[in-house]
Amino acid sequence: MAKYVPDIKTERWVIIAPGRKSRPDQSAPKPTVKVCPFCEGNESQTPPEIYRIGPGEKDKPGWQVRVVPNLYPITDIHEVIIHSTDDSRDIEDLPSDQVTRILTAYRDRYRAHEDDGQVLIFSNHGFAAGASLKHPHAQLVVIPKQINLDAVEREPVANVVKENNYFVTYCPDFSQWPFEVWIAPKQEGGGKFGSVPDSELADLADVLRDALKRIRSAQEKGYLHSVHEQGVFVYNYYIYHWTNWFIRITPRFVHRAGFELGTGLNVNVVDPTEAARVLREMV
Ligand SMILES: [Zn+2]
Fold this sequence. Notes:
The protein is an alpha+beta fold and 283 residues long. Helix content is 20%, strand content 22%. Strand 11 (235-239) and strand 12 (247-251) form a beta hairpin.
């Protein structure tokens, strides 16, 4: 069971979740997992499946996207959305049809839990971004409604990188991380992520895949030197949990350190206008 502890003055909360400590760790010098539980054929290594896209029987091969409960939950409802059967390729390298399936799974699971609390979907890509298993996946957590989340709301569109029929990709003026990229519905004042219709998911897949490819190209072309091992592409993204939703991608080119911890102020070493200019040039 997760325990929620408040800081009365700031209305911030901390979750105490000791169960997380025993998570497997593939990044350790001696990985604590030998067989990847998310690979096709290893379905028996995860808790029973909750959802799948693709043919085949529950907990048997054949799936294209698979959702299972997280064995080491942060909150009482915590699911893992396995992006594909591919152990190494993630959104930026998967075919667009597969990215559409992944987003369909996100949207469907969001809908399934919408009434249970605040639904947050996020993905950690790379061990340095907090992933403990390499196989690309996202996570869905449900946080009780009475817990105050300290999350930024949708920022105004500025420094546009790309747009298609329904979505716009941009680098908000209020960017806390270098090369931070947001994706939002063109029409502001929209609903929650669960309200995205099937007809818009392919367009969303297009901009998400495109944004990650552009950020990676900027890294490869040396616009910013990553603090991580050379050539490793490390990022997080999450989908804002409430109305007027957006996706926020934060590449992890820098570490957060004492100054940020002590002041709550973030130092962004790349002007978002410049980030957008560079990203527009990437193909
Ligand atoms: Zn795997």
